[in-house]
Amino acid sequence: MHLESPRLLQPRPAAPPAVPPGAGAARGALEKLPKWAICIPLVLQWSWLALRHGSITLPSAANPRITCGGLVGEGKLEYFDGMGATARAATARHVGIRDPRRRSDAELAAALAQAGLTFPLVAKPDLGLCGYGVCKLASLAALRAYAARYPDGETVVLQQYLPEELEAGIFYARDPVGGQGRLIGLALRYYPRVSGDGVATLEQLIRRDARALRVLAAPAHASALALDAVPAAGQVVRLATIGSTRVGGLYRDGGALISPALCAAIDAIARDMPEFHFGRFDVRFRSAEELAAGRHFTIMEVNGAGSEAIQAWDPDIGLVAGLRMIFAKQRLLFAIGAANRRRGVRPIGPLALMRLNWRQNRLIAHYPLSN
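Now predict its structure.
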């Protein structure tokens, strides 16, 4: 069997930005559209693929060991817990704590010590989406306050805080039959930021920048910064722990960094995870050169069949080209699901998928504010 290679997801010849872009970066074609407008062509293609393959939920078979294949409703710990030694060595230290609001300070401290974690650290919902509920915490008191607002009975993931400023989403796919793994896309994610002039307050700098302004207007988000502070001239201030576009994050196509060495490194990690055939590895790294060489990167989290081709949100990519990237991703996802179905994997039922989606959306509304 040979899976179609998504030509439009292959590396672009232009090199990615060498340094994080400054304030005022333009919105891309996809960012300018309301979500419902983006969904229409994607739903139409999904419906066509469902008719062609005879299953509307076929992508849920892409990663058989993950809930719904990672399409919706899976926990972050599902990916981590299945890792072997190779994959685990490349992943940030972490620990999952169920029902954290009912844990004493001593129990929380013991769990952190056992996992080798120290403050600052990042708290994130095990069942999360788009950075909702993700917070950088500086102390046990901050963790206790976070836990007090966390939904009853749910699991939080506490993870090593990674100081590297550079972040990438590396898209991976592997033929379940032939075993050929490859990278089909790489997105560089830049956090919202402003640059000081020594005169304006942080709030004034943010309000001058349409992209940065999202950090103040984003729902379910609270800035932890002193908005009346005056950054020094040239001082770059990062505005959020998360890099989602909903708070002003910027995505760039980093396909130029895809190399045989990086492909080999990611393929070795993916093969060290049971039946993992499709998804995105979100990593922090020190330099573009090291990432391209497949060295010195750390996995923050893994996403499965529901992973977005986020490089399509690059402001330099036009609407048609961006949609083609996403269409190619969906075609490949269905093809991998179909290959696994022929191997005996059963896709999830539509009603079960709807229940998982409902539960995930319900929980997101009750998570603590991100910062």
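The radius of gyration is 20 Å.
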